[in-house]
Amino acid sequence: MQHRNGQQGFSLIELLIVVAIIGIIAAIAIPNLLASRRAANEASAISAVRTLVSAQMTYQSTGGNGQFGTLAQLNGAELIDNVLAGGTKSGYSFQVTPDNNANPPTFVISAIPTVTQGLTRTGTRRFGAYQDGVVRADTTSLGTHFDY
What we know:
This protein is an alpha+beta fold and 148 residues long. Helices cover 41% and strands 18% of the residues.
């Protein structure tokens, strides 16, 4: 920075140009950052659904005596961590619904984004699995339960 005519610092125009450039960079970067965050949330949800399927199979063959468990039961058997047992992780809400009255017993695992609309939405797909272990995705309806 040089001293010109006894003045020092930046002119208002120079500062406005810098602010405009920062605004343009932010307008480009923020949507990409949010999209990356949603993708990371979805990858985490898929991983958690896989973990829950594995935990259900382990629970059924060990402590469950042929029955599937709820999130609390899976946590009590130390098959899942406390965060996942709480039902919410990485912007997704998880629900495990065992049907031990069916023959053979079944379960449904649902992973639904906690925020489904707007810039801050946590995911664009919902995920789920049954006792066959296949993780399924659905983008047509972000309802409160995964039910194919």
